[in-house]
Hints:
The chain has four helices and two strands, in the order ααββαα. The protein is mainly alpha-helical.
Amino acid sequence: MPATRWTxxxxxxxxxMGAILALIFRAVPVDDAGVRDWTGQLVPGFWMAWTFPxxxxxxxxxxxxxxxxxxxxxxxxxxxxxxxxxxxxRGDRLFISLLGSAFIxxxxxxxxxxxxxxxxMILSLVYAAAVFRWV
Length: 135
């Protein structure tokens, strides 16, 4: 495929994901004073408590999977051996970084509590960058 065909694909997916994110944001409940309840249910009475953070988490995972799929199609790669001495592809490194980030967040919640959870996210991003660079 010529490189010129990829631009509409990228733009179309970006618009689609942006529209989905806008719909999620728009579904956040607003109280009588006009203040958004970020942890309120997006669909009241639904069997699952879909809140904005939960929906944003799943949107992020979907966006990562779409990006990784496009990268695999556009720029195929061969597995490489890193510091763990195992062959990994981009998808393997994404899985390792997501799994490690989950454990970082669990440990952060245990030792530091829910306050300043942004620290765990920053630590997870540094961890993911290291995994993609050296694993």
